[in-house]
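Q: Protein A?
A:
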Amino acid sequence: MEVFLVDGTYELFRHYYALPSACDKQGREVGAVRGVLASVLGMIKGGATHIAVATDHVIESFRNQLWPGYKTSEGVEPDLLAQFPLLEDVLSAAGIVVWPMVEFEADDALAAGAAAAAAFAGKEARVERVVICTPDKDLAQCVRGTRVVQLNRRTRVTLDEQGVIQKYGVPPLSIPDYLALVGDSADGYPGLAGWGAKSSAAVLAKFGHLESIPKDCREWHVNATSAGALADTLCREWDNALLFRTLATLRTDIALFEDVEQLRWNGPKPEFDAIAAGLDSAVAEPRKAPLSKSVSRKSASRKTAGTS
């Protein structure tokens, strides 16, 4: 079997910006929810048997206490935010396992779920592959060989461990260190000045983790422009580098399930037919202009055209 772990937050953002607005009889915006539901049910129709969807029930998380600039819900359209609890209820009624995150993020749930499913994959031949369905680069840290992979459902590109190395220049275990240096504008932390993708990949490809990078750049022996300045910045901003790595490191110590069979789809619940009928009857209409031109960092990064 394959286990599919879906980034519900990404999917909701993606469908919100890709599909027209639709309101149900209560006047609620449901267009994105309807799109995500159809997409996930399409996965099941396509053969997925074990599936879970992680959502950010609350956008803010424990990371906001660590770094004041970390992503928040500020600037996210209210009719998009309002669809998160609705999405969770609809997917649950459809018989799909949902992990709504409050203290942690959906990305943490995906990481923890992947680690737990991978443990089953290591012990039982019945789990052939774990597929993390998200394009978010921080989830690349969870990829393991060809057993745990990352799938961008929009572009249909799958990354195994060699794919991660080819894309980022570092193996999955170095992704948090890489993001600490280059930063992640979608999540709201800047990285270290001067440390670009190429220099970070070159140094970490050799040394693996921040602690292993020699303070003296003459010991690096890698192709990195302005190595002296990079070394000085790393020494000067050492505490921030460690903090950014903490922000980038996904939590895998969240208990989500005890047996992979808990993720098996066994069909919808009795209440699903009425809920689905309500979504089907929602009337499409032109989307209202945003109340503000400001858009959260995460929402801007997730404005992706097209559906799967």
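Q: Protein B?
A:
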Amino acid sequence: MKAGTRNPTSSGGTPRRRDYDRRRKKKRSVARKPGRPIWRQPVLLGLIVLLLGLGGGGGWLAWKQGWLATAQERVAEVSHRVVIALTPFKLADVTVEGRDYVTREAILAALNVKAGDSLLGIDLQAARHRLEAIDWVASATVERRLPDTLYVTLKERRAVAIWQNGNEYTLIDQNGRTVRASRMPPGADTLLLLGGPGAPEHVGDLLLLLAYEPYIAKQMRAAVWVGQRRWNLILKNDTEIRLPEEDAVAALQRLAKLDSDYKLLSREFGVIDLRLPDKLYLRKRGSASDTPSPEPTKTAQSKV
């Protein structure tokens, strides 16, 4: 063995591993790239966005065209028919309490029911609201009374006057609301008779005016709204009292004082004109003229 040759073995007798053996056994691990989630795939994501857009657009179009409302109405109608078919409680009678002015037809139209309808399927709150929309109804209640009755209680507004408009007579409440009743209520002959265009709108002011002098109010038979600005009062003895446009309360109080002092209302005068604050015009019954004398009598000088 030549002196320059190296021993291939180590000092322990184990052959020495060469570098290429180490490189062979060291295998580099290649890191795999994780795959994309399915929902992040471009094509699938585009399809999802498209479907959502079509769904939202279709819903908006259905709402815009009324298809959604129509579908809801049909479902409600079918449900109502199912309830009617299954329920044992069928409507046979409608009982109304407290009706004087409102017509039977108006009540039935507001209830919107017919014989054979299901009592359980009737919307009581909606029926009550429709009844209270009738002009002459102040409040209403609607109840089911099993097995077959719908019970309605009405609180009507009270009439305070009858308005004569040509040949037509209309009941008036204290707020000036009018109604054409199917029949006159009990005691209608004692109601105040109103005349003149626009009289119902001013009946509240008239009632307030008469409250200052109840004695004169008890003697009244009618009141006429003149020229859209003032009242003429007609007493039961046909005496006509012409009130001023301004400060009618003071004029009526002045008349009450004159009647207390001189029994003016029970005398032979057919017209008592109070339109001027410091003068009193009087005209006897049966006078040919319909207007006061051009020479008025002052209140202080009147011989009554």
